Amino acid sequence: MTATTSSDVRAPTHRFGALSRLLQRSEAAQGYALLSPVMIIMFAVLAAPLVLLALYSLWTQVGFTVDRTFTLDRYADAFTRDTYRELFLRTLWVSSLVTITTVLIAYPVAYYVVFHVKRNKFVWLVLLTIPFWTSYLLRIFAWKIVLGYGGVINASLMRVGIIDAPLEFLLYNPTAVVITLAHAYATFAILPIYVSLEKIDRSLLEAAADLGDGPWRRFWRITLPLSMPGVIAAAVVIFVPTTGDYVTPALLGGPKGVMIANMIQLQFGKINDWPMGAALAMSSIAMVAIITVFFVWALRYATGRIR
Question: Exposed, middle or buried by CB within 10 Å (0-12, 13-18, 19+), for 103?
Answer without folding.
Answer: buried
